[in-house]
What we know:
With 665 residues, the protein is an alpha+beta fold. It has 16 helices and 23 strands.
Amino acid sequence: MWVRALSSIFSFLLIGISLVDANLRCYDTGNFTRNSTYGRNRDLLLASLLPNVSANGGFYTDSVGQNSSKVYALGMCRGDSTPDGCYRCLNSSIHDLIASCPNQKEAISWGGDPPCIARYANRPFFGILELEPTDAGYNTANITSNLTEFDTVWESLMDRVVRKASNGTSSLKYATGEADFTVFQNIYAVMQCTPDLSNKDCDTCLRASVSNYESCCHGKQGGYVQKPNCWFRWDLYPFYVSNASTNVPSLSPPPPPASPPPQSVNSTNSKESKGSSSRTRTLVIIVVPIVIVVAVLIILAVAVLLKSIKKRKQGDQNNKGHVELLQIDFNAIRVATENFSDSNLLGQGGFGPVYKGKLEDGREVAIKRLSKNSEQGIQEFKNEVMLLAKLQHRNLVRLLGFSLEHKERILIYEFLPNSSLDNFIFDPVKRLLLNWEKRYKIIEGIAKGLLYLHEDSQYRIIHRDLKAANILLDEEMHPKISDFGMAKLFTVDQTRADASKIVGTLGYMAPEYAIQGQYSVKSDVYAFGVLVLETISGQKISTFSNQEGDSLLTHAWRNWNEGTALEVVDPILRDGSRSEIMRSIHLGLLCVQENIADRPTMASVALVLSSYSISLPVPKRPAFSMNSTTETATMTESSSLSNPSETEAIQVSVNEASISELDPR
C-alpha cells in the first residue's frame, strides 16, 4: 500500500499534472424553447444513454422524434472504464449538459477520468468525421531530458498507437501503447475513436489530434486532445488500466560489443583489455547515476512519509481537540434534565432513554443516555461522536456535545420539536399534517443527506440503520438523518465490506446484508427505497399484510406492474401531483431491487428527484422483505448456513422502540 501511495506521490511531485477533468461545449447553431417537444426529446434521449452505453459495450447512438423535433445522441466511455465508472462519468456529463446548455440544440461534453463523451444534436452526425471543436490540455512540467531524442521516441509511439486504434480489432477503436525512453522513464499513450467512424477517418482524427498537441504543447510532460470523434492522452506514468503484463525496465548494463575478428594473440589480448576497461567505465557511468537517483528518491520518500505522518498526527490532534471541545460536564447534563426526570423523557429506545434538556446557555437539546447494558458499545459510541463531530449538512442531525464520565455515555443533539417521521406517517391523526408536497420534500431531503454521506463529505459513510424512526423533523418539517451508532466508514475507493455481526432493523435490511453480511452504499439505497414506499403508502414495512400475502414491497410492485399504483398511495395524498407520486413509487421500487447492480446510486436518485425528464428502467420484482418473527428466525439460520464455520449474531432494533422516537413535551 505504501509503495502504491509513494508511487502516486512521486507522479505528482515529478510530473506536476494539471489536466482538466471535464469540458463542455454548447454549440451556437440554434436554440429551442423551454418545455418544447425538442427539449423533452433531448432530455429523454440523454437519459437513455445511461443504461444503454454500458449494456452495449461502452458505445451507443440513438435518435428520437420527428422532423424539427428530432434529436440525435451519442455516448461513449474510454475502453478501460469499469461499468460503474462509465455510469458515473456519463451521469455527471449528462447532468452538466442539461444544466449548462439549457436551450442549445447541440452540445458535447467530455468528462471524467477515465473520460466519456455525451453528445446530442438536431442533425445526423453518426459516422461523420468532425475535427472541431477541440479541447486540449497539458501538464505544467517540461521535458528535462534530451528533447530531440525524446521527440523521436514519442513520435514513433504515437504513430504506432494511431495505427493500432484505427486498424485494430477493438470494437471501440481503442488502443494503448508504451515506449521506453530511459531506464527510469516510459512514455504511455491511449487513443480512441467513436466506433461509427471508418478506419480512414479514425486515422485522420487521431493524427489531427497529435498534430494539435504538438502545435500547442510540445515539450510538456504529458497532455490530451479531445475532439467530437476521438481523443488521445499521453503521460510519463501508466494512467490507464492494461491487461498486459507490466513492462519493468531492466537495471542491468547494456550487453558488451560483438567480438572483434580473429587477430594475433598479443593484439587480441590488448583489445580484450581495452574492451573490458570500456565496459567497466560504461558500468560506472550507468550505475553511479542510478545509485544517486535512487538515493535521492529514497530521501524524498522518507521526507514525504514523515511529513504525511506528521500531518496525520496533527490532524488527529486537531480532531481530538475538536471532540474535546464538545465534551460537556456530566453534572451540567444532570441539571439540564432535572436529574433525568421522567417528566423530561422523550422516548425509550433500544440503546437507552432520550430526554429533553435545557443547557445553561438556554439551548433546548435532546439527550441520549445509553443504558449500561446497551448493545451500543464503546466503539459504537466513539463512532457516533467522531462522525457527527465532523459531518455538517442541513439534512443530518447536529451533535452539540457528549459526556463520558462516571461510566455514563451520553450524546447531546439539537432538539427537533417535530419528533420523527414515523410518528407522522403511521399516525391516523398526525398523517393529515403531511400532504404530498411536504412528503416529497422530506424524500428529497433524505436523499440529499444520504448523498452527502456516500459521496459529498470527506468520508464515505454507510448508515446501516436508515428508517422512518431515524428521520427527525425540524420546525419546518425538514428531515434530518440521525443515529449513527451503526455507521461504517469506507475508504474513497472501497465498494463493499463484510460484517462480522449483522445490525439494523428488520424490513429495511438489504438481502445481501441480511443473509450474507455484505454491505455497501447500495444497502442504504435499499433502506431508502423502503422508506420512500412507507412515506407514500403510510404503511409500515414491519406490519403490512394483505390477502395475497404480499409484503409492502411486492404489493407496491404488483400494483405498479398492473397499472393500479394509486392503490398503494395513502388516501390523503390523492390530491397531490400524480406524476410525482407515480415517479416516486417507480424510484422506490428501483431502490429495493434484489440485485445491487439494478439499484441506482444516491447521486442518480437525487438527479431523478430534481429532474422530471430522466427516464427510468422498468423495475423487476423486488427483493424479499423480512417483517415477522418467523422471518427473523429464518434469517438467522440463513446467515449461519452461508458460513457454516461461523455463526453470526443478528442485532436488530425494533421500530416501536426506536431511540429516535421522540415526542415533544
